[in-house]
Sequence to fold (292 residues):
Amino acid sequence: MASVVIFILASLLCFLPLYLKVGVRGSNQFPFPKDLDKLVDDSIIDSHNALRTSEGTEVTLDCRNNATKKVMKNFLQATYRWIHNGMHLKFDEDRVLNLTGRVVFLEAKAGDSGSYLCQIEYAPFLMKTVAAFSLLVIPNNILVQTYKYGARFCLQCNSDAIGHLYLYTSRNWIINDLYYALKKDISAKSVEVDCIDFALSKMSGDWTCVTTQEYTKKQWSTAFYRIIVDDEPPFTAKLAIFLKDNILHLIVLMVGIVLFVVSYIVAKKRGKFARGPDGSIENAPLVPEPKL
Fold:
């Protein structure tokens, strides 16, 4: 038994230097140089990679710049990787090419829309984000989403990557490139869907999610929808919709009214003997206190 323990301890001591040399996730064995870190961050701040194209066209996301070239030169084993809407980008040799520092869409599709992060894995499991892109692909045959008047619907923007890299950014939905759909902007960092609680007929049209940086006015578009809202129904139909949507509230209200009426009738019957000859409470005869 003792020999087994000694063997295990000896093995650990042998492999410990190798473990420390290779490093683990979050290890300081491969620190990212401060000068490179500042160079990359400044490059991100100054950049504005917002692309818009039509379905079927060729488009390229190019991550190569002065900052990324220096990173690749400093870490010879470094590799590029791409994140699309929070997921690892899947490459298709027939349509999507993964070149060094570039992604080439030979035939862009609507599903390619969204936000992209270009990252460099400069050491095992250690990443540095070096660029961000937005891509909006307008489909040739647009799928129309139809909603009834007064319905609730939600849309996905996929702006969170932009929001995390660029400070003071918020998003909103522009209808027909004319006006904003939401009264209040939403933080671009949010990964949640954006919901409209009550659909109106004037909301019909093309919806584009636009992220805006407050002080630079830079904009990124990451999602597109075509929405059709049915015409406003007549009064009787709106009344039926109201009753349907508020049936529980109406039941509670009706029960409350019934209880109030019953309580009032009972109280009135009990109180009619406590009135005076003229029917007024003021002239009602005093009720003697019970003797103990």
In short: Confidence is low (pLDDT under 50) at residues 4-29.
